[in-house]
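Handout for the seminar on molecular recognition.
Each group receives one record of this type.
Step one: identify the two inputs.
Step two: read the structure output and locate the region that could contact heme C.
Step three: write two sentences on what you found, then compare them with the reference statements printed after the record.
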Amino acid sequence: MQQAHRTVVLSIAMATLAAAVIWGCYPKPVGPIGPTGKKLTWAAMDKDQRRVHMRNAVLPRAAAIFQQWRPQRYGTVDCDLCHGRGAAAGIFDMPTDHLPRLSGEMLLGPELEKHPETTRLKLDRLVPEISDALGVKRFSLITRRGFGCYSCHLGPTGPLFGN
Ligand code: HEC
Ligand code: HEC
């Protein structure tokens, strides 16, 4: 009994530790070296550094994903793929009206029904790769925060989930 109890306590402690390690990793330093000699996180970068990071780290990965999916349609992509016409004017606010508004349903029922292919592509590749490129935590159903669909798309009446 004593032994079993200790095992339970130990495994809870281990799980908590593992969670702390996983959660503790974000945000990741993915940018250029900052004033303290350490690499900057996405949040700490200024607008010029963000532009450069988008060009070097985000655009190539997004381009590869979209081109593999529909080479005809996404043969050449640039900043306006996600930022729309604002990109040319230096407006990079996200989420953006340039992309279709999504339903706002957390479990993506309508999206999976109407656009199963693009929704799977986003879930399996785009969200993981872009959140990784930005060094930010992925959307979690528990916290309802993190990088996900609504980091790029608006909901029916505006931004959702802390975006
Ligand atoms: C695959 C989609 C995608 C592409 C392509 C893309 N961006 Fe972004 N961009 C985003 C997202 C998403 C954010 C918001 C990230 C966040 O803060 O959560 C963002 C944010 C930015 C910001 C920061 C805006 C702010 O308010 O601080 C800048 C600047 C920017 N992008 C520039 C660019 C440039 C320049 C290009 C082309 C080289 C580009 N982006 C291509 C998705 C994209
Ligand atoms: C990094 C930005 C980004 C993220 C994150 C993102 N999308 Fe998109 N989404 C896009 C872009 C870019 C397009 C294509 C726009 C175009 O072709 O002009 C798009 C298009 C779509 C479309 C329209 C497809 C069509 O053929 O009309 C749907 C539906 C969609 N996304 C759903 C989702 C869902 C669901 C998620 C989350 C699982 C998601 N998106 C995450 C950028 C994003």
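Reference statements: The beta strands are 29-33, 39-41. The chain is about 50% helix and 5% strand.
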